[in-house]
Amino acid sequence: MTIRTTCAYCGVGCGILATPTGARSVRIEGDPDHPANRGRLCSKGTHLGETVGLDGRLLHPMIGQKRASWDKALDLVARRFRDTIARHGPGSVAFYVSGQLLTEDYYVANKLMKGFIGSANIDTNSRLCMSSAVAGHSRAFGEDVVPASYDDIDAADLIVLVGSNTAWCHPIVYQRIRARCEAGAKLVVIDPRRTETAAEADLHLALRPGSDVALMNGLLAWCRDAGVLDAAFLADHVSAPEDFWARVAEGGDLWSVAQSCDVTVADLRRFYDLFAATPRTVTLFSQGINQSLTGTDQVNAIVNVHLATGRIGKPGAQPFSITGQPNAMGGREVGGLASTLAAHMDFSDENRARVQRFWAAPTMAAKPGLKAVDLFRELGNGRIKALWVMATNPAVSMPDAGAVRDALANCPFVVVSDVMAETDTGGFAHVRLPAAAWGEKDGTVTNSDRTISRQRAIFVPPGEARPDWWIVKEVARRMGWKTAFAYDRPADIWREHVRLSTYQNDGARLFSLAGRGGGGNAEYDAMAPFRWGGQPFADGRFPTPDGRARLVSVFQKPLPAPLRDWPLTLNTGRYRDHWHSMTRTGLAPKLARHRAEPLVEVHPDDAARLGLADGGLARVRTPQGDSLYRVCTSDAQRSGELFVPIHWTDHTSSGGRTGLLPRPLADPISGQPGFKSTPAAIAAVAVR
Ligand code: SF4
Fold first, then answer.
1. Full domain range(s) for residue 93
2. Protein residue with its CA nearest to atom 3 in ligand 1
3. Cβ(659) to ligand 1 under 6 A?
4. Residue 83 neighbours by CB under 8 Å, 6+ apart
5. Above pLDDT 70, what percent of the chain?
């Protein structure tokens, strides 16, 4: 029997047809009926069938190095969390969860922490991926709503990609972009690196890292001078600070902007002219924007241009944040971030009271909790005394991962629920809980364009593995909240999530799943992919108190000069065929062929100056740590900058431990770490 499910990897959210061919084998094909991919799959999705074996799986609960029963492990987790809260208060415990969780898992974990433990110290690795987009949307629209859909790509005449190597990181979206370009649309890529995506663009602006606000403010001024602002839309649907336009002008003329961004005046003018002349423009942005110390401002700089030109809420005219993880968006919908409540609500008193009433919660969190970087800093300071990590690997993926490891080592009680027995973070756990993997659990995920799809089980979970929602609700029940967590199946959680999205929602909030939860388990089982929200903002109304969108004044911050001891700038990112810390893609041998080892990409001039040989080894150092890479010289890099991949860990290589290198600094509004610009140095390593 063929099962319709959704890919395990990225935020494109491709539909998959999975046909079991044995006890632990499956044939994978793209689902021709899924709106995200229409039958296509990229290399990662195509090879999912190679990753469903049991090698390395955690099959039983473990207390320390000893196998334990579920009862014993769950009792211990509940008791230690209860005791810690009793002695030190609810702010002394934390959950760190993941965009790999299904929406139902996410919902239950948030409910437990925010409504019952009474703290908002639950953050997610999606903080590292798209929280600047969340903050930017909220500032501009009043709610974290992605207005675009993939269909907008098919209707665009100009596609602008900012800080996104879409060809590698969102390959099926990129195929859609290419198809549109073959039909005549133009493609502009704004990225310091000449990535595979940039190499195929009509125009590539290899701007100076971090100069995106200058570029977009310059574009806004250009559009105004060219007379392409949408005066009627601005008058009827947008508000702005009084001095907004005067401040935009402070960015200077074309020459000054080109100098700030380190691009030629001719290229800049070409981009600005193309944008001004093309009403149907979609601007997609991703980690190059979000993972910046000014990420929220960069998001708003993009959104400002779309609002001012009226290019929003219309087919083929949208700003479009594309998410990294398979369920980053689902997490946003249930309040997966420490700074949000469920159903797109913020922490206003009214919203807190509304959610507390709905949950009949005893101790609702009074304020936003610790965002990821702060959470691990407080873990290191000893203020967090019990931590539960679900489906993620912060000992590898957090910035300054060395300090995160020290913090984990010193935390009195660490729980890790994961599918794999040996992970870098699991090595610090007092209790490890075996989670069901992709292909073994049921639930829903939301992709970048608000399409909610079912993930369905193909296999029975092996050993004693259990779904994450089950593990969390069993701990909650043991902490004393039996009725509120009386879920028997994911459909029970889904229906509650649907009800909360409509509970006392008078339509002011766009996020609503009205009409999606009434049909019982059979409806849930048969659920076809659907996009919530229709065409947001098509009527020019925004979910702000006055119904108007906001232009947000944002200014280019001065870019730091190179430091004497750290003269280079380190950028981090993904490879095409690997995912996160390779716990899944590492199981598929064919995926290792594309990049078998971690490379540091260096401009040839820098390599010559620093005595680095192409193919030789080099150590990259930052104030936080150092790691070994093989050198790849490439003029796709700007001089003065290095690029390294994020995927390798203690379990996969003796080098390439990229998490040790970035600074634990974050955008002050979104809390998203600035992975793209760490001061660094590099030196050749002699091989004896
Ligand atoms: Fe999976 Fe993303 Fe590839 Fe689609 S584009 S098959 S969701 S990894």
1. 62-126+326-476
2. 42
3. no
4. none
5. 99
